[in-house]
Backbone:
């Protein structure tokens, strides 16, 4: 997987020093304080994401967004906002955080937009599971999963449209043959169904009473 490049817009040295070590461990980062420097960075290399410390900037972000998109239609934008700034006062973005946040918080949010790892992806009919990154993706949408949710979804994606017994799921996900209490499995099945709805993905977990579950897709084959 590529190493993404972030353009960090800020005038505050203290914020730059606080965030750069973490950002630099995962991304290529260039810093700009002025519009001229930012445009020069966009011209010199492909920028994947603009990280803008909004209150620190002294130029029109809307115009800058337009310039950035003209150079790279797929560029993403992430805002760092002071408390009290309303979202209707700033350009639309792919995400934001309000001061004061921690560097790990920022990295977790950016990882949803720019995955930083060389991960295994398990897919079926367009539904993709990033195993190491703990993300389930459909088209341009994605949701974060817990490790157990990853294991459960992975079991279904590796055997699509196949009935998986409750015993097999308990073994695959929790590593146990004990069937005395399967409420945990019920909770995770319910949670996975909610994740699929959040993705607006044409997939459901069907229940075969007393036997198990199967992952099915409602799209006809010709629609893929």
Residues:
């Amino acid at each position: 997987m590529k190493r993404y490049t972030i353009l960090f817009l800020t005038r505050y040295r203290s914020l730059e020093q606080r965030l750069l070590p973490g950002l630099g461990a995962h991304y290529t980062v260039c810093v700009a304080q002025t519009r001229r420097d930012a445009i020069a960075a966009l011209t010199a290399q492909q920028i994947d994401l603009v990280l803008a410390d909004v209150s620190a900037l002294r130029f029109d972000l809307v115009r800058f967004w337009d310039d950035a998109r003209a150079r790279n239609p797929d560029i993403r934008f992430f805002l760092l906002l002071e408390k009290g700034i309303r979202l209707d006062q700033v350009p639309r973005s792919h995400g934001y955080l309000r001061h004061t946040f921690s560097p790990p918080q920022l990295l977790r949010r950016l990882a949803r937009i720019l995955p930083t790892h060389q991960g295994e992806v398990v897919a079926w009919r367009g539904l993709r599971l990033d195993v190491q990154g703990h993300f389930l993706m459909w088209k341009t949408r994605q949701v974060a999963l817990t490790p157990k949710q990853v294991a459960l979804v992975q079991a279904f994606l590796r055997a699509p449209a196949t009935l998986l017994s409750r015993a097999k799921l308990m073994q695959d996900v929790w590593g146990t043959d004990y069937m005395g209490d399967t409420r945990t499995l019920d909770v995770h099945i319910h949670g996975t169904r909610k994740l699929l709805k959040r993705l607006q993905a044409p997939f459901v977990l069907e229940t075969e009473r007393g036997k198990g579950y199967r992952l099915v897709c409602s799209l006809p084959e010709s629609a893929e």
Summary: The radius of gyration is 21 Å.
